[in-house]
Amino acid sequence: MPYKLVILLSGSGSNLQAFIDACESKALPNTEVSAVISNKTDAFGLIRAQQAGIATACINHKEFASREDFDCALKNKIDEFGADLVILAGFMRILTPGFVRHYLGRLINIHPSLLPKYPGLHTHQRALDAGDTEAGATVHFVTEELDGGPPIIQAKIPIFDGDDAATLAERVLSKEHTIYPLAAKWFAEGRLSLQNSKAVLDDKNLPESGVLFQQN
Ligand SMILES: Nc1nc2c(c(=O)[nH]1)N[C@@H](CN(C=O)c1ccc(C(=O)N[C@@H](CCC(=O)O)C(=O)O)cc1)CN2
Ligand SMILES: NCC(=O)N[C@@H]1O[C@H](COP(=O)([O-])[O-])[C@@H](O)[C@H]1O
């Protein structure tokens, strides 16, 4: 029985594509993307999923009277598909405490900064404006606190003179496509868990910033 990923997204879906390719190449063995769900009807990630023969659903947050109602519909759809792991891949909605509690420990996100720096939006511009010399991405467990969940893995890149938010985003995204499937692989292998609000890998608490991914 393959390990089932349900991926939530709001945009282009290049991280989704990385998961599709990793499952296809068996870099993520015995794992499948069971469904892709978006809150945006025009998310290109839905097209990517359809091109890969993956079930899709669109639940438009604008059609709901409250965040709680939207999250309840989202939860029902996810559970209809069945998910061992719920993956936020550029999903641009803040999730309610009830939703997070339901999936706690099997709900992860990728954030385009070296958390705890720059939670929220516009991370690359904030790093540039602060004069930082490095940027990156963080895979973390999702908790009620926005982008405050325990980090699992981080990748760092240098910020070059002349970088702008777009060039930074492009180089960070490339690292995301490596670390995100790796974190999911650890989870599918039963090596990664959330215990007492800490990320645990191979029965050891991870460092505050997660595992630092080093690519030679
Ligand atoms: N309870 C949590 N929900 C979410 C988390 C989390 O850690 N805890 N991670 C985010 C992902 N994210 C950054 O990584 C993020 C997504 C969305 C927003 C945000 O401000 N959204 C606005 C709408 C913005 C828009 O529609 O363009 C909103 O929801 O009102 C901040 C950070 C996913 N959810
Ligand atoms: N706060 C959440 C957030 O900003 N997530 C970011 O959205 C992008 C989605 O790209 P993709 O659609 O090409 O995978 C990624 O860079 C991800 O880190």
Automatic annotation (TrEMBL):
Keywords: Purine biosynthesis, Transferase. N(1)-(5-phospho-beta-D-ribosyl)glycinamide binds at G13, S14, N15. Residues 4-183 form the Formyl transferase N-terminal domain. It holds the Pfam family Formyl_trans_N. The active site is at H111 (proton donor). The record marks D147 as: Raises pKa of active site His. Pathway: Purine metabolism; IMP biosynthesis via de novo pathway; N(2)-formyl-N(1)-(5-phospho-D-ribosyl)glycinamide from N(1)-(5-phospho-D-ribosyl)glycinamide (10-formyl THF route): step 1/1. PROSITE patterns: GART (PS00373). InterPro entries: Formyl_transf_N, Formyl_transf_N_sf, GART, GART_AS. Its EC number is 2.1.2.2. The keyword Transferase applies. (6R)-10-formyltetrahydrofolate binds at R67, M92, R93, I94, L95, N109. It catalyses: N(1)-(5-phospho-beta-D-ribosyl)glycinamide + (6R)-10-formyltetrahydrofolate = N(2)-formyl-N(1)-(5-phospho-beta-D-ribosyl)glycinamide + (6S)-5,6,7,8-tetrahydrofolate + H(+). The keyword Ubl conjugation does not apply. One of its GO terms (molecular function) is phosphoribosylglycinamide formyltransferase activity. It comes from the Bacteria. Catalyzes the transfer of a formyl group from 10-formyltetrahydrofolate to 5-phospho-ribosyl-glycinamide (GAR), producing 5-phospho-ribosyl-N-formylglycinamide (FGAR) and tetrahydrofolate. Belongs to the GART family. This is Phosphoribosylglycinamide formyltransferase. It comes from Zhongshania arctica. The gene is purN.
